[in-house]
Amino acid sequence: MSPACFDAILVGGGLQNGLVLMALLAQKPKLRVALVERAARLGGNHTWSFHGADLPHGSGAAAALAEAVMALVVAQCDEQEVHFPGFSRTLAEPYHVITGERLDQVLRARLDAAPGGALRLGTEVTLVRPGRVELESGDVLAAPLIVDARGPAVAVAQRGVGWQKFVGLEVELAGGVAPARPILMDATVEQLDGYRFLYVLPLGPGRALVEDTMYSDSPALAVDAVAARAFAYASARGLSIARVVRREHGVLPIPWRGGAGDAPLVADSAGVVVTGGAAGGWFHPTTGYTFPIAARLAATLAEAADGELVDRVRLLWAVHERRARFARLLNRMLFRHFSPGDRWRVLERFYRLPEDTVRRFYALEMSGVDRARIVCGRPPRGLRLAAQTREEVV
Ligand SMILES: Cc1cc2nc3c(=O)[nH]c(=O)nc-3n(C[C@H](O)[C@H](O)[C@H](O)COP(=O)(O)OP(=O)(O)OC[C@H]3O[C@@H](n4cnc5c(N)ncnc54)[C@H](O)[C@@H]3O)c2cc1C
């Protein structure tokens, strides 16, 4: 059987390829593009948030994607709060929320409207190599550009990595009242299993996501127990939960060692495969967020002319890696130089920095001044240089 031919094939219908699809179609509406996803719908069971500064900036494909992404947003706020034992702050920065459900709706509509669009749901991809994608059914798809974004590997304990793990409850609130603005971190709670904080995200009238998160040394997550803690936190803060609508959880690697290596792409005469999203290492090493970096990759893929695509992706990767290296250094400080019970002090100090620095840190676009602000000055209490030295020698 001869393969079905496209200009681009997107393997995995999650956040990364959602952004790639939107960016490609914004630039080239007639592109023949196939999106292949193993699940029955796109987007999975996720709520994604991003700050305004995380959107790709610039003209051309970046601007078009920044505009297109707003169709995915289900809720937004202009301010967020953070709370620590001795310090609270309100940050002024647009904050946007995307749900997997919304991503599914919008991407289907975009593909329906695109003359060259094809959607294959419930379709397992078994092999990806330049020019060629093989499906479990035996069908073969061909294209010069393939973006392989099949998501993060299953979390297993490994060296040089800490973990951000969380359980979120999407809840309906009695009386239809929702919190006024997001709480990015409430670290006034008991510190358990590493740095622990609660995250509260208003999702519209009478809806919120309440998430219990830990920066821990272990990927083990007792989902039911942590969900019960999130529920108890909400009740204690006066959020009267009428119903839990949905539950989500995640265990994301927070690396503090090594580098991610060469740009995650393979190219030969048949075409180019770019490994995107979490699978390719296009994520923020400290926050675990993919959105800002995945959006930059999507805009780059949409903008690059055929002959320059490989070089453009390599260049983007080099910039990402340079910034990621600094973030890994901070992770190392957090996980190796502070005991689990003291980690909150590092974050408390971070949130005292100027808002621009906080914003650029989230976007993984720190300037030299930002880096100096983050590491210079009086270290937070609890720094264990001696302990760290012994551990490093071992
Ligand atoms: C619950 C949760 C909340 C998160 N919140 C945020 C957030 O707020 N902001 C943020 O930036 N990051 C967040 N993250 C981090 C998250 O890893 C990334 O944001 C993002 O989902 C990664 O995008 P991706 O496209 O690489 O992978 P995914 O979004 O996981 O998409 C991968 C897709 O590939 C499909 N797939 C896998 N294998 C195959 C196959 N063989 N054949 C066909 N399809 C396949 C999967 O079914 C899935 O739909 C969150 C993670 C979790 C788990």
What does this structure look like?
This protein is α/β, with parallel strands linked by helices and 394 residues long. 33% of the residues lie in helices and 30% in strands. It contains 11 helices and 18 strands. It has helices at 15-27, 60-69, 100-113, 223-236, 277-280, 291-303, 309-336, 343-350, 355-362, 368-375, 385-393; strands at 4-5, 8-11, 33-36, 47-51, 73-84, 87-99, 117-120, 125-129, 132-135, 140-142, 145-148, 161-173, 183-186, 195-202, 207-216, 241-255, 265-268, 271-275. The strands form 3 sheets. An 8-stranded mixed sheet has the order 4-6-5-13-14-15-12-16. A hairpin with a 2-residue loop joins strand 17 (265-268) and strand 18 (271-275). Helix 1 (15-27) packs parallel to helix 6 (291-303). The protein is globular, with a radius of gyration of 21 Å. The protein starts with a strand and ends with a helix. Bound molecules: flavin-adenine dinucleotide.
Supply the key terms.
single chain; 394 residues; alpha/beta; six-stranded mixed β-sheet; 18 strands; binds flavin-adenine dinucleotide
Q: Structural class of the helix and strand makeup?
A: alpha/beta
> In terms of per-residue confidence, which ranges show pLDDT below 50 for 5 or more consecutive residues?
387-394
| Main sheet makeup | 8 strands, mixed
Helical proportion? 25-40%
- Placed side by side, the strands forming the largest sheet appear as 4-6-5-13-14-15-12-16
Q: What is the succession of H and E elements? A: EEHEEHEEHEEEEEEEEEHEEEHHHHHHH
Ligand list:
flavin-adenine dinucleotide
CA radius of gyration: 21 Å
The number of strands is: 18
Dominant shape: globular
Strand content: 25-35%
Distance between the termini: 57 Å
Number of helices: 11
The pLDDT mean sits at 93
